[in-house]
Amino acid sequence: MNVNENLVYAQGALAAKEYLHKAQMDMKVNRRFQPQTLRLHKEAYLKDKAPKFQAGFMDAIGAFILSSLDGGTVDLFRWDVLSVLQRANRKK
Length: 92
Prior knowledge:
Blueprint: H1 7-30, H2 37-45, H3 51-69, H4 81-91
């Protein structure tokens, strides 16, 4: 899937980046760890969204997790999630 040609998918990916940024800031300010936050957000926010939006959202979350597991620190202010997903989709 070409991220640049699929606006709904890209919007989902950008929504995930925004969600991650808010979650990161909440962790820094409140020092609370709530494992269920992603699940609750997905259930409440994504349930009415188009399947391609949901796919973009979850793919971006997956890209963030895999980058973190690989040992990299993801700077969400500068992270170009659409480029990351575009490169991953080209490798398929």
